[in-house]
Specification:
single chain, 282 residues, alpha/beta, 8-stranded mixed β-sheet, 8 strands, 45% helix, globular, binds zinc ion
Length: 282
């Protein structure tokens, strides 16, 4: 398995040969940065934890060079930041017992350049070998350009594969913008009511980001609790933790459907829900 950049890495926590390690993948998350996986795709990580027949593989597209830094890491060079972020991602992969962790090591600008096919080629090669049944990536209404760029590349990649090589499901997940605004009927709820200790541990390895002044660990656990409580206004809480996904599968079933039209349909249903309520009570 070779990628376009010589600096790309495949980390196999249990040391299995690469092809064999990748081939056991059933669930795969493809994200922009180190830590996005643990923020947005905790459910598949926990589902696969300690299982023999389902396995989680993580893919991070960027190199982490431009990360904010403070405290311990204040004087780190871009290269030192890259190294520390790779080390943190590997710690999470070990802790979460991933089948494999791929670090493609692209600068963000290359991911955002839709004319650059390198990342698309890498992902095509990877998905051909790993054949995941479920893929998790960023949601299309995220407010971080690199996140949305990754989602577009993933959609392009899957669309380019023959039908038999595509995953059954593609989900867009929450990082830089929660999906609380989606209509309840448009939300895919991911149950995170158990293993809070593991969830906290997976988020906690990212010391360079947390020390950088952002409590992503507390914020992510808090969002999961808030999602669970605010999900349905009339029911009792059925779980202590939820994260939400947007089902992007229609975009890989209908490969001609414009991505923008698809996301506008979600926004349109949200706008109508607000307007309809005004009609009723305003
Ligand atoms: Zn990110």
């Amino acid at each position: 398995m070779r990628f376009n950049l010589d600096t790309a890495e495949i980390f196999i926590p249990d040391g299995l040969p690469v092809e064999q390690a990748l081939a056991r993948t059933t669930h795969m998350a493809v994200t922009a940065h180190q830590d996005d996986i643990e923020i947005m795709a905790a459910e598949p990580i926990l589902q696969c934890f300690q299982q023999k027949d389902i396995w989680f593989t993580g893919v991070v597209a960027t190199d982490g060079r431009g990360s904010p830094r403070d405290d311990l890491y204040k004087d780190y060079t871009d290269e030192e930041m890259r190294e520390v972020r790779i080390k943190e991602q590997k710690k999470a992969a070990f802790l979460g017992e991933y089948a494999a962790q791929i670090l493609l090591d692209y600068p963000s600008r290359m991911i955002k350049d839709n004319g650059n096919r390198n990342v698309v080629e890498d992902l095509v090669a990877l998905i051909r070998v790993a054949k995941p049944k479920y893929i998790y990536t960023h949601n299309l209404a995220d407010k971080h350009d690199t996140h949305v760029a990754v989602a577009f590349r993933v959609i392009d990649v899957i669309r380019s594969l023959p039908d038999a090589g595509r995953p059954e499901k593609l989900y867009g997940c929450e990082v830089w913008r929660s999906l609380d605004w989606l209509l309840d009927s448009d939300k895919v709820p991911f149950n995170l009511g158990s293993h809070e200790n593991l969830q906290a541990a997976l988020l906690g390895v990212y010391d360079s980001q947390i020390c950088g002044g952002k409590r992503y660990d507390l914020a992510s656990m808090g969002r999961r609790k808030a999602n669970a409580t605010y999900f349905e206004s009339h029911g009792v809480d059925v779980t202590q933790g939820l994260s939400f996904g947007m089902d992007l599968t229609p975009l890989i079933l209908d490969t001609k459907k414009p991505v923008n039209d698809f996301i506008q349909e979600f926004i349109g249903r949200f706008a109508k829900d607000v307007a309809d309520r005004f009609e009723r009570v305003g």
